[in-house]
Amino acid sequence: MKMKRDKGFTLVELAIVMTIIGLLIGGVLKGQEMLSMAKVNATIKQISTYQTAFNGFIDQYGYRPGDFPDAQRRLSNCINPYCLNGNGNNAVGPRDNVWEAVDQSRITENQQLWTHLMLANYISGISASTLEVNFGVSHPTGPFGGGFTFLTANDSGVASAQGLWLRMHGSLRNNVELAPVISPARAAMIDRKIDDGVPGTGSVRGYQYGNPAPGDPGNCEHEYDETFTDIKCLIAFKISY
């Protein structure tokens, strides 16, 4: 008499199923890692593009974009109130701490820097015909979300922090704190590829709100906690002194 097989998986079948599940999970994780690395490389490329655009504008016009006092006469389609002249004092906007959330309205030199670059055909992706303030409209977006703003830092107590900084962060609101946009692990990768890999020194700086102490989980100010993959950091890149 033929024995009827009990329903269910054999050990071999279970092993095959577990192997397939493991391969699927590994594939997903590998795909996520590849996507994240692509964003890291895209960020570095974007920073390089803005650095080249900034220097090219100075070579062509003799002034920093945003600070250009003859923009309305010399830039095509630079029309009030969307495109304004700068004051020509060799600083873009007010001087402040590199992490201060300065007013990013359409009439400030900080934002006009982007408008001047766009109308001079050095960058694309923003508009010069609206007063709306938003990433993707007045300011360019970033690969990790959020986008970029400029600030001329004073930081008289920290000489190495003085200069013009390009900052990547997650929100764009007038006179409010800047939101985090990247994890410590990814910020560290970008810092190492461009600079020294240390958040508090060099031409790339990491930062987070809340006055973290050294060794705090997710730190991206004293040192990058690369075991932490949640969004905790802002990051800034020195463009000029």
Can you describe what's shown?
This protein is of the alpha+beta class. It has one domain (39-240). It has helices at residues 11-61, 71-74, 109-119, 184-194, and strands spanning 95-96, 147-153, 163-169, 204-207, 234-240. Strands 1-2-3-5-4 form a five-stranded mixed sheet, with helices on one face.
Low-confidence segments, given as residue ranges, are none
Strand order of the largest sheet: 1-2-3-5-4
Q: Could you tell me the strand content as a percent range? A: 5-15%
User: Any idea what the radius of gyration is?
Assistant: 24 Å
- Shape from CA axes? elongated
What is the fold's blueprint, element by element?
Layout: H1 11-61, H2 71-74, E1 95-96, H3 109-119, E2 147-153, E3 163-169, H4 184-194, E4 204-207, E5 234-240
Parallel strand pairs: 1-2
Antiparallel strand pairs: 2-3, 3-5, 4-5
Helix pairs in contact: 1-4
